[in-house]
Amino acid sequence: xxxxxxxxxxxxxxxxxxxxxxxxxxxxxxxxxxxxxxxxxxxxxxxxxxxxxxxxxxxxxxxxxxxxxxxxxxxxxxxxxxxxxxxxxxxxxxxxxxxxxxxxxxxxxxxxxxxxxxxxxxxxxxxxxxxxxxxxxxxxxxxxxxxxxxxxxxxxxxxxxxxxxxxxxxxxxxxxxxxxxxxxxxxxxxxxxxxxxxxxxxxxxxxxxxxxxxxxxxxxxxxxxxxxxxxxxxxxxxxxxxxxxxxxxxxxxxxxxxxxxxxxxxxxxxxxxxxxxxxxxxxxxxxxxxxxxxxxxxxxxxxxxxxxxxxxxxxxxxxxxxxxxxxxxxxxxxxxxxxxxxxxxxxxxxxxxxxxxxxxxxxxxxxxxxxxxxxxxxxxxxxxxxxxxxxxxxxxxxxxxxxxxxxxxxxxxxxxxxxxxxxxx
Length: 425
Hints:
18 helices
């Protein structure tokens, strides 16, 4: 099924910037809460089952998996309802406020309060992940298909810059993730929430709502009409074979990516045993290289095509995961062949460069590809399918890794991530 409508004109620069600022704002949440600070705080302090933290890692996996399962159910239905009622900004605003409130409430969690901590992580990550899909549904409205690569890349690039600013502030003013510093580091929740609250304001000022509201059939409400629309689209999925193949690829790729997002800094702390200075340096390295990857590959996509760009990013991921898994072995080889006395934590930084380039480029290219393959008038619905595929992958990947590390330990469990990308490549 081909879309024969006239091509969309490039949106105003102010609107594109407003759209991209939501990526800038929400990266503060995913980095501070999911990746760098709170995940480590949850496993090592709130649960605190030293020395291997297997229970903490498992409970962290369960909390994230539950939140993503909720997104799997809600995202496609909300997408169909948004397209039907033309209320995408209203849904985006609700997810934004819920993320802010539940993130701020993390301040009140005390060490040992496992259930409250897990509930707040589930709710905040659910709202954040919903918003991620809602904001992406605006992408096809911002320009012609050939421009979606650099627009998507701009958003991801600004996102990593926003994450760098938010996390650098947190690391400098709030200090180390330790039980002794808990009274200070607990402020990471309120800071992440307020950062998101303030920096997303340009999105709601400048981003336009497009489309026409449809009249509800007699005897139906918005929910039932959205479900019916979703059922019709699902029955017509054989017309969208390219999109169907992409969503299958997204499932396996995002399973691996979510493992890295959720466990990379936990891995560095528990397996590599890095110092606080190296942890900060890794964060800066990943953020800068991710921004370069997102923006750079966004422009490359305009010249070599979205599909080729996406495949290249998957190959980069395979190299990055292999480097993470084999960091101790690579360190030993370098010490023997080059006669250097490098520690594993510094070799791990090389894996961070590859992971950063892969992270920014693959997510930007995948989102742009969905925008290219989405017919007009179904953007929220199709990006709902994209969100469903990605979050179902997160459940599979994170919960799978959590269970494997429960049996074999985190160092060997990372091999699961290698297998995901090896299969795709």
